[in-house]
Amino acid sequence: MNIIVTGGAGFIGSNFVFHMLKKYPDYRIICLDKLTYAGNLSTLAPVMDNPNFRFVKADICDREAVDKLFEEEHPDIVVNFAAESHVDRSIEDPGIFLQTNIIGTSVLMDACRKYGIQRYHQVSTDEVYGDLPLDRPDLFFTEETPIHTSSPYSSSKAAADLLVLAYHRTYGLPVTISRCSNNYGPYHFPEKLIPLMIANALADKPLPVYGEGLNVRDWLYVEDHCKAIDLIIHNGRVGEVYNVGGHNEKQNIEIVKIICKELGKPESLITHVGDRKGHDMRYAIDPTKIHNELGWLPETKFEDGIKKTIQWYLDNREWWETIISGEYQNYYEKMYGNR
Ligand code: NAD
Ligand code: TDX
Question: Which ligand is located closest to the Cα atom of residue 216?
Fold first, then answer.
């Protein structure tokens, strides 16, 4: 089996590459990644010498480069993780989100049509459903919940999902889509809530919580997400959407307090800053479909996952310290300097 994994130098994509190479020693995994600010080749260092792995630096929007790779590798499956993924950046500058997340998806699927494929899998997000009110804990996103996006990021992901379903209906492309809740774990880029709070707490810097910090996210350990995608690409029904979530809802402020406690840092570091524009209140996934059809359940309890994650950031300081000392520093100052 030849699998092209786009965005494999990012957070979830790299965890997926490791998972697949370990679980399927007879598969060939080809990572296609543009290495944007969020892609990091050092993340893939542990597998660079694996004969079943190949890294190719290219943009998913570059039709010629994508076609060339398909001609060389004849992939059976394409799993598309490549995306601009940070909501705050999409609010500052939506253009690149439309380019990568929408146009890039169509370029990949055009190559799948042209060369033939067993499966195209789109890694999507629960954010396409918009948000739920805080006072209705009985409500969850199902696969039938209407698309109702809030940010340029989620709108670009929703547009891509609609294109994926259109390519299935119009051209018969064998597609699947997974819509997952917030992931956490190793190699999470330090602009995102959990790694940002770990890095700042370790440096005794303020912990910037947007607004009151009452917004709820449904946190899933990244390995559990990778296992869900593995099941979907092998056994999921073509043309279907699968929601993936942890039944693990937590308010942002709870998460930040847990991190302070685990690291032995004072909660006085918590600083309430201006809220995110259009900030979604609550995400909550109903994962009944993937459980009933494919037997998937999250395996990592949050209490264990967060401990493992914090330990990983303590053990791999060089990885994230290199990142936060570079271009990211300018972004951070721009974002938080004016809040
Ligand atoms: P990330 O930002 O950590 O990584 C994105 C990767 O894509 C990087 O390696 C980057 O270099 C690459 N990339 C970006 N633009 C590209 C382009 N034009 N061509 C080729 N490569 C490009 O993102 P992540 O958090 O790992 O998310 C991966 C996917 O999962 C995204 O599609 C995201 O929408 C989705 N998702 C993420 C979460 C989450 O909690 N992080 C939850 C649900 C869904
Ligand atoms: O400094 C911060 N302070 C803060 O209060 C940051 C970075 C975030 N937040 C809040 C905003 C959100 O309510 O924490 C919550 C989580 O924020 P992010 O880590 O930016 O994630 P989110 O916006 O929920 O989106 C993530 O999950 C869904 C991923 O980045 C998306 O790619 C994925 O689709």
Answer: 2
Distance between Cα 7 and ligand 1 center (Å): 6
Residues 180/221, Cβ–Cβ less than 8 Å? no
Domain edges within the chain: 2-185+220-247+281-300
Helix (H) or strand (E) holding 237: none
- Residue 226 has what pLDDT? 98
Say what the pTM is.
0.97
Distance 280 CA to ligand 2 centre (A): 10
Give the position of tokens 């380019």: 99
pLDDT in the model for residue 235: 98
Predicted pLDDT at 246: 86
Which listed ligand is nearest to 193 at the C-alpha?
A: 2
Within the chain, how many helices (H) and strands (E) appear? 13, 13
Report d(CA 280, CA 262) in Å as an integer. Answer: 27
Domain range 2-185+220-247+281-300, its CATH number among 3.90.1150.10, 3.40.50.300, 3.90.550.10, 3.40.50.720: 3.40.50.720
Each residue of 29-38: pLDDT tens digit?
Answer: 999 999 999 9
Contacts 24+ apart (CB under 8 A), 56-59: 56/30, 56/31, 56/32, 57/33, 58/32, 58/33, 58/34, 59/34, 59/100, 59/104
Q: What would the pLDDT profile of 66-97 be if each residue is shown by its tens digit?
A: 999 999 999 999 999 999 999 999 999 999 99
Tell me the pLDDT tens digit for each residue of 20-31. Answer: 999 999 999 999
